[in-house]
Every structure is written in C-alpha cells, then in structure tokens.
Amino acid sequence: MITVIGLLALFIVWGVVSARREYYARTDDQHIFQNVTIAAVHPAALASFYIEALGCEIIPADGGFELPGESSAIVLRLPGYRQGPTLRIIPCSTSPLCGPLEVNDRGYAHLCFETNDVPGLVQKAVEAGGTISSTFDRIEKSLSVYTKDPEGNTIEVHIPLPAPFNPYTFYRALKSVWQIKRRRSDPQRSKVRFIHVNIISEDWKETAEFYRKTIHARPTGMKRDYKGLFIEQMVGIKGVTVKGRHIALPGYRNGGPTFELFTYNKPANQGPPGLADRGIIATGFLVHDLMQTVTAIETAGGQIIRRPENGMAVVTDRDRNIIQLVQR
User: Fold this and answer.
1) Using omega within 30 degrees of 0 as the cis cutoff, is the peptide bond preceding 273 cis?
2) Backbone dihedral region of 176: left (phi > 0), alpha (psi from -120 to 50 degrees) or beta?
3) Which of 19, 119, 141, 196 has its CB 3.0 to 4.6 Å from that of 168, i.e. a possible disulfide?
4) In degrees to the nearest 10, what's the CA dihedral of 221, 280, 100, 106?
5) What is the tens place of the pLDDT at every residue in 133-161?
6) DSSP assignment letter at 66
7) Which SUPFAM superfamilies does this entry report, sorted A to Z (predicted)?
8) Is residue 246 a contact partner of residue 196, using CB atoms and an 8 Å limit?
C-alpha cells in the first residue's frame, strides 16, 4: 500500500510539473526551422483564412526569407508557440505551371495542426471558405480530418498527441477524445498548434537520411504503416497504403515541429512545386554556418538554386523540395 501511494504521489507531482512547463520552446541549435512559404492567387484572402480558421497572427515581415523575384509577403505566426515558425504567403506567378498538390503528390503535400476540438476547427475552416477532403461517414466524430484551404492546399487537423509523453499531454489527448465522442464542440475555446509539414517522397528513408546528414533532424515517434479503410477514408483514395516516419526539426524542445515523411503506393504525378507554382513551395531555416550547410546539402544530393549571397541561399533537398537558408 505504501508503494502504491508513493507511486501515485510521484505521478501527481510529475503531472503538476509537466502541466506548468513551457513546451515546444525555441532552443539554440545550429539549425532552426523558421518558416513555410505558400504562393497564392489571392494572398490577402488566404491570410484571412489562416487567421480566422486556425488562429494565426499577422506579424511584421521577417527579413531575409524573400524568394527570388518575390515582391511582397504577408507573414503570419503559426499558432501554439511563443516564439515559433511563421507562414509566409506570397503572390504566385501570373501563369503558374501547376496548382496546389494533392495529398499523394510529391513535395510539401500538406500542413498539419492539432486541436482539442477537431469538429469545431473543421467547422471554422469550412465557414472561412475551406472544404473537407476526408470521406468519413461521421466527420463530427473523427479524431483526424483532411481539409483544404480556399486555394486548395491540404490541411490535416487532429487531436493533440501525447508528445512528449507525460501525465499532462496524456490527459490532454484523452480529454480531446472524450469531447469528440460526447460531441462537446466549442470552436471559440479550442486551442490550436501547428505541428508538421508533410513531405511525399519516393523513398522516405532516403529523405530522412538526407535531413539527418544536413540539418541533424532525428527520427521521432513510431514508424507509420497505414492501410485499410481508415487511411482510405482519411486521404480519400481507395486501395492506398502509406509508409513513413516523422523527423523532429531542429530549434525546438521535444514535441516541436516535424517533417512527416510519407511514401504512397499510389503516388500522383505532380510535384514537387517550383518557384513559379502555386501551393506550399518552400520551407526555411535559420543556420549558424550558411556555407557549411549549403556544402552539406550539395554533398548529400541536394541542388543549389541561389548560391549564398547577402546571408541567404536557396537550395533543394534530394527530392527537389525548395529550402531557404538564412544566416543567423
């Protein structure tokens, strides 16, 4: 009995301490994940969607992340971080070569946000001009849903996962499941956090190795091996199987932003997008040593689009996804 009481007391103390900790805070790494760039036909309208539906906050433009030929950008702070990554929305080319990617197109296929009120956030997204992609019979009782913003970019919404695992994050996830099952939706009080950029590649393992060598991104969580009715209804593709894993992006504590690396058995033909395309076209990192990082990327199979100049470079990973690098 004494042992049980002692363990229970330790668990309660652990829960109190973990609930008060500031999660996902910025750390002083050699590389820091900093931004996602979307090229849009109507940047202002798209920015309004992310503000109204997902709780993004408009902030002054962050210097250094302008892409070649970019005339202006609306910069939003992605939700869930005191000091965290940003979303840059820029005007796309007058004649884009291709539109936003589908869920199984190669490239930056979707952005993901977690919330304690999935049905409520999906409802807000639809009211703000978005659409639902998943084909679940009961969307209002789903723990994870694929939607699209008004420009056609895919957004995944799901409940908070217990990461890093502790009593606080476990309770948060359990409470979210209970709310959905009991249909207790309250969109006005829902908490939202940006959690990952999904990358579709031909071989997720090789892509993970590229990012390990270049920005020291490490695998996190379990390997994914999805098949069956759930994933078919989730992505809206019959007979699909998906394999992959998350890699933790540098610059944040445990549970911070990740790249979700997926390989589909039924890949689409479009992508990755280029600078003249619409959709999610780039991600950006602050780096301690710009030249060293560019050299590492080129050595690992990436390509250089714009060589280091004025503290900035534009490169691609091994799959031709565009990456912006800015000297810290």
Assistant:
1) no
2) alpha
3) 19
4) -50
5) 999 988 888 889 999 999 999 999 999 88
6) P
7) Glyoxalase/Bleomycin resistance protein/Dihydroxybiphenyl dioxygenase (SSF54593)
8) yes
- DSSP state, residue 252: B
In sequence order, what are the residues at sequence separation of 6 or more whose Cβ sits closer than 8 angstroms to the Cβ of residue 280? 36, 37, 38, 100, 101, 107, 108, 109, 110, 111, 153, 197, 273
The pLDDT value given to residue 275: 86
Q: Which two tokens stand for residue 118?
A: 């999935």
Counting every residue written for the chain, the total comes to: 328
The set of residues, in sequence order, having a beta carbon less than 8 Å from that of 295 and lying 6+ positions away, is: none
Q: What is the CA radius of gyration of the chain?
A: 20
Q: Which residue, chain included where needed, has tokens 């912006």?
A: 324
pLDDT tens-digit map of 171-196: 778 888 888 877 776 666 678 999 99
Q: Are 244 and 227 in contact (CB under 8 A)?
A: no
Q: Which helix (H) or strand (E) segment is 89 a member of?
A: strand 86-91
Contact 114, 160 (CB under 8 A): yes
- Helix, strand, coil fractions of the chain, as percent rounded to 5: 30, 35, 40
CB 101 within 8 A of CB 277: no
In sequence order, which residues have a C-beta less than 8 Å from that of residue 285 and are 6 or more positions away? Answer: 31, 32, 33, 34, 215, 250, 251, 293, 323, 324, 325, 326
Question: What digits encode the pLDDT tens for the residues 273-308?
Answer: 888 889 999 999 999 999 999 999 999 999 999 999
The tokens describing 204, both together, are: 């997720």
How far is the C-alpha of 191 from the C-alpha of 160, rounded, in Å? 10
d(Cα 73, Cα 324) in Å, to the nearest integer? 15
Longest dimension (CA), the chain: 72
Strand-pair category, 322-327 with 279-287: parallel
Q: Estimate to the nearest angstrom the gap between the alpha carbon of 33 and the chain centroid.
A: 11
Domains of the chain: 31-279 (3.10.180.10)
Query: Beta strands 107-115 and 154-158: pairing type?
Result: parallel
- Comparing 276 with 208, the larger pLDDT belongs to 208
Which residue in the block uniquely carries the two structure tokens 């363990």?
Answer: 7
